[in-house]
Amino acid sequence: MATFPIFPQESRKTAQIRLTLNGEEMDVAFAPYKTLLEVLREDLGHTGTKHGCELGECGACAVLLDGKPVLSCLVLAVECDGRSVLTVEGLCEDGRLDPLQDAFADLGAAQCGYCTPGILVTAKALLDKNPHPSRDQIRESISGNLCRCTGYLQIFEAVEAAIMKIAEGKRP
Amino acid sequence: MKNEDNLRVIGASRRRVDARAKVTGQTRFADDIFLPRMAHCKLLRSPHPHARIRKIDTSRALAHPGVYLVLTGRDLPIQYGILPVSQDEQALCVDHARHVGDPIAAVIAREELTAFEALDLIDVEYEILTTISSPEEALATPAPRIHDYGDEGNIHKRVSLEFGDVEKSFGEADEIFEDLFFYQGSTHLPIEQHASVATKDPDGKLTIWSSTQTPHYLHRALAKVLEMPAAHIRVIATPNGGGFGGKSDPFNHEIVVAKAALALDRPVKICLTREEVFYCHRGRHPVLMKFKTGVKKDGTITGMHLQTLIDGGAYGSYGVASTFYTGALQTTTYHIPRYKFQGCRTFTNKPPCGPKRGHGTPQPRFGQEVQLDKIAEKLAIDPAELRLRIVESSNTVTANFLRLGTVNLAECIRRVVKISGWNEKFRKLPEGRGVGLACSAYLTGAGLPIYWNKMPHSGVQLKLDRGGGITLFCGATEIGQGSDDVLAAIVAEVLGVTTFDIRVYTGDTDLGPVDLGSYSSRVTLMAGNAAIQAAERAKAMLAEAVALRLEVPKERLCFAENRVFDSAAPEKSVSFQDAVCLAEAQFGTIGTVGSYTPPKSPALYKGGGVGPSPTYSYSAAVIEVEVNSATGWVTVPKVWIAHDIGRALNPVLARGQVEGGVYMGLGEALMEEQEFRRLPKKLSHALVHKFPSILEYKSPTSLDMPEIVTELVEEPDPCGPFGAKEVGQGPLLPIMPALANAVYDAVGVRIDEVPVTPEKIMKALAEKQAGRAPRYGPNHFPHVEWPEALRVPPPWEGGDGNAVNDVPKRARQTPEKEKVLSS
Questions:
Q1: Counted domains in chain A
Q2: Is the CB of A48 less than 8 angstroms away from the CB of B26?
Q3: Contact assignment for B19 to A110 by CB distance below 8 Å
Q4: Which of A107, B327, B420, B635 could pair covalently with B626 via S-S, beta carbons 3.0-4.6 A apart?
Q5: Whole-prediction pTM value?
Q6: Is A30 at the interface with chain B, CB within 8 A?
Q7: ipTM of the assembly?
């Protein structure tokens, strides 16, 4: 079995950063070896972002760091000082679901729901950059997010439905 | 259909009741539970595939700062297992490690990292034993035994059943086909890693939250191993982040955290790493198969003899049931008048195999459907036409005494033939492109429970309150398949409210009546029927009270739109809330229950407990492929599938189950493999998992998914709630054989093995070029000493469901011995 470096107890929780989480500035202290995923879940109580492998293989832990999708299990939290993080908890605005969330809920894009937070924020990053992606661009953008339940098709359809809804909402 | 039957909720595509929680990240999975003073648990796992544990010294680990407790096998010696006949697991190995990853000791510490660190401080002395790496080795190596129970040596279970004289049936055949197939093992790969949190409640009882598909069976295992009354244990199955069968066993880590929480009087959590999930496994059994089938010139089957050799891995798990399942459902799709099945499961030093979506049946279905493709070619009959000639009909009892409900396989075949353009494509596409067709059937719930009892398989309790609220309690477990939504939809339909008006509490042994678990595609039918009964009972009370108030006959009342109407004079009505108040005033507190027990099976012979179901679903699929003959690479542009579902309760979810099944089937067909390799001799020569990581265990991504056209064939089945049959497992089953058949149509080579990889295609193409048989697959079935077959004459030969060379069931006195094995 793997050998892990031994940290003396007293050295833990010594790192501190200030970051903007879902639009809200906050300070957090944590053990310096922790990943952004661990700090979000364990030190900031944001459990919407999920563990799936801790090795950057499954995409369940995707969040947006300064607007770009990253795998939070591969990002050290100490690297996030002064930066902005968006998680699934930050997708709702004024108590209303994001069009992506509505479409995922209505069209069967979330079955067990475990990969859903990562896919939602990845899709949001895509739409922020490109409001009218093709099906192939949608495929490509979420190809690092594994889903074992849906077979992906209802996810593609939900993203496409959200695109339509966002476009309609923008019309004068 | 919806309008005909005047249904408002059932049959409409709706947002599922738990969707909002899922898209906002608020669904609380087991790993999302953080409790005050919570300690963390890590398991030390065996680095050896097979070893005696000579000595364990935990003193250095215990002395490590931040460590609260170290447990070893001696702390939890009682054996358990999912099946009564295979109580062969211990939460921590006492003296025998049986596969790499078998847990040896547990450390519980203040922080997860501290627990990790302390694992390295546990000193274990092992004596290495001979590794058994395959069923062939298991047959040839009776000692050392991996377990000291089982049929013989390292053979776990051998079964032999004969329904009619199969040798005689071969004599009546015009052609006899003998084929060998191999189906590689694969794993569930749920994205959620197994997690559990246990705590000693303030009153001293135990509560455990766990990602389990079977809280009731975990409840029983905990009571047994911890030697506590079940009444003092509460199991809460948190919503599973994917199950697929992989969370259906009671697991060592669940028992360990429960024990630790009781010992420490504080919450204890464990979340497995991805590597550890591969060691939990319980996935698809690798199966070697030999099919001998006799047919008439017109395609009629005269008889079939199937032999299966099964790699069980290190523990029993569901394996005895899996063994029977490799032979149980062959007769459900096509008429087979005489049938013989022999199956043998061996122990090997690998993570235990168990139930994965389709449990034991995808392997023989692959062999049967590929062989049928070969038969069709030889007889010069179109494969779809051949199948249409021999499909089994509704309400039949098969040769092995399975009572079928509605059978709409023919309609499924006709639909996929039509929508795929089969007649324009089969044997007509250019070289390198091809289509393949295959069919399947699956149970809608196992007809028998895992442990022998006469109680219901599912129960639902309803509470109606003065505010018009409805609360539903049921032991059913939401694993992503939508069982909470099924329950809410059924009650909403009966009581004329919306699903949003219902609160659903499921998977909690304290709150809800028992449901046996989310396995064998049983929940929609069984919990669904229990929900109908509970809702109808509540409706009857409300109707009686409202009839009195409105002064109309209760038979005339109609429940809809959150009101209760006089159907003859709709202006006469009360609100649903008022109806509850009227009923409460008349009868007292309104609470009702419903329960469901499947019908008795006509299969009375030993082993007949595996296979019966209230009714079966049917699927037919056509897959189109493009095969690059220079690289062997297979691309799947499109899949057409028709599924006989009885009725789709929520079509958007039903379609999701079909597409998810097709996806997982394509993974098994093309790439997924639970493979092992030996480390070099100069290292330990241990048999290790080839790739216990998601990166190396290849599964399809969004880039690999073809277009899928899904047709739901809806003829309500009288057994199902509103006519519904299963959809969670069946649609996976025709995918693997349809793909292999399509590869043959494309490039003329038979890959009689799953997965169908480029390497195998290249080898078969080389054989073809060399003028040899254009095939890749097994060539040898090892000798197995089969026991004397139980001879059960089929119904049309005067059989009554008993074996003629065994005591009839009624005379077999010991229910212990009969503990029926199903999943």
A1: 2
A2: yes
A3: yes
A4: B635
A5: 0.96
A6: no
A7: 0.96
